[in-house]
């Protein structure tokens, strides 16, 4: 059943989206963020309601507009003023405006066991981010840094990982 769900997500991801200036749009990113969280085998660690911290006003608006639930649990998205706020959340979304704070984000996320989603794929590829969305050969892909995700307390299901681009294996 999970395999079917993964393939449906990827079908939606590949065929049912619009792109903005070469990036995966925030509306799609917000929907996928919620779905990806449900594939964490340690899902119960997120609490109820699930608190999501975001650094971006645009992502905050996109998440609040959805009104969806994650595995039957409601979520609340809140704006973070600085990396010091990460300790209040188990899921955070960081945009490229926090580039100067990436080192602090990495440190705070590990300490809080907070799963880090990023708009800037370079932070997932070479920094402390766990999940990002990137255009590869003009197609949107979910990029997962497996090592960072594990350090942040996340254990994604193998069915989900089969439909992602995996980088940064276990250290």
Give structural notes.
The chain is built from 7 helices and 9 strands; from the N terminus they run H-E-E-H-E-H-E-E-H-E-H-E-E-H-H-E. The protein has 171 residues and is an alpha/beta fold. The strands form 2 sheets. It has a 7-stranded mixed β-sheet with strand order 4-3-5-6-7-8-9. The chain has a two-stranded antiparallel ribbon with strand order 1-2.
Features:
alpha/beta; 7-stranded mixed beta sheet; two-stranded antiparallel sheet
**Percent range for β-strand residues:** 15-25%
Strand line-up of the largest beta sheet:
4-3-5-6-7-8-9
Structural class: alpha/beta
Terminus-to-terminus distance? 31 Å
Radius of gyration from CA coordinates: 14 Å
Mean pLDDT: 85
The geometry reads as globular
Question: Helix-strand pattern, N to C?
Answer: HEEHEHEEHEHEEHHE
Helix percent reads: 25-40%
Number of helices: 7
Sheet with the most strands, sense and barrel status: 7 strands, mixed
Low-confidence stretches: 12-22
In total, how many beta strands? 9
């Amino acid at each position: 059943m999970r395999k079917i769900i993964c393939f449906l997500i990827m079908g939606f991801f590949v065929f049912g989206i619009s792109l903005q200036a070469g990036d995966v749009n925030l509306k799609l990113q917000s929907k996928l963020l919620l779905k990806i969280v449900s594939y964490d085998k340690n899902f119960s660690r997120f609490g109820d309601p699930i608190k999501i911290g975001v650094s971006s006003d645009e992502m905050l608006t996109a998440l609040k507009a959805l009104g969806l639930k994650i595995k039957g649990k409601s979520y609340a998205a809140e704006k973070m003023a600085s990396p010091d706020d990460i300790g209040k959340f188990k899921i955070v979304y960081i945009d490229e405006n926090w580039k100067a704070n990436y080192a602090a984000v990495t440190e705070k996320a590990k300490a809080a066991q907070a799963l880090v989603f990023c708009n800037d794929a370079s932070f997932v590829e070479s920094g402390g981010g766990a999940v990002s969305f990137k255009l590869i050969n003009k197609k949107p892909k979910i990029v997962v840094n497996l090592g960072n995700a594990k350090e942040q307390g996340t254990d994604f299901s193998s069915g989900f990982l089969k439909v992602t681009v995996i980088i940064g294996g276990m250290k």
